[in-house]
Amino acid sequence: MGIQDIIEGKKQWRAHTVRVKALPPDYQIVYKEIQRYLFKVGPIDLPDGSLLSGIVDFFEEGVAAGKGVLELIGNDVAAFCEGLVKDSRTYADIYQESISGQPGTAGK
């Protein structure tokens, strides 16, 4: 990863945060909870950026449709997040495998 990649990544992240800040306050709160959850146990490929930007796209569509954030995701933010990463390898899986000592045994 070169310096240009780092600079471009920072530009993309700043643009992303501007989009998040443009959301209504209730959407921002839920987005931050989703982000916190995903950063803690989320998929290994989270730094690729498509998941978080996809959530912002989804939220922007909800705002445009006049829906509340809980109408979009339901009342359980953690369950929504689990649905997003259910088929992805997560850092939690890696941790579980390190405890058990056997690869591929997370969640069994």
Provide a compact summary of the structure.
The chain is mainly alpha-helical and 108 residues long. It contains six helices and no strands. The protein has helices at residues 3-21, 25-41, 50-64, 69-73, 77-85, 91-100.
Can you walk through the features of this model?
With 108 residues, the protein is mainly α. Helices cover 69% and strands 0% of the residues. The chain has 6 helices and no strands. The longest helix is centred in the N-terminal third of the chain and has 19 residues. The termini are far apart.
Taken from the alpha-carbon principal axes, the silhouette is flat
Q: Using the CA coordinates, give the radius of gyration.
A: 16 Å
**Helix tally?**
6
Class from helix and strand fractions: mainly alpha
Strand-helix topology:
Layout: H1 3-21, H2 25-41, H3 50-64, H4 69-73, H5 77-85, H6 91-100
Helix pairs in contact: 2-5
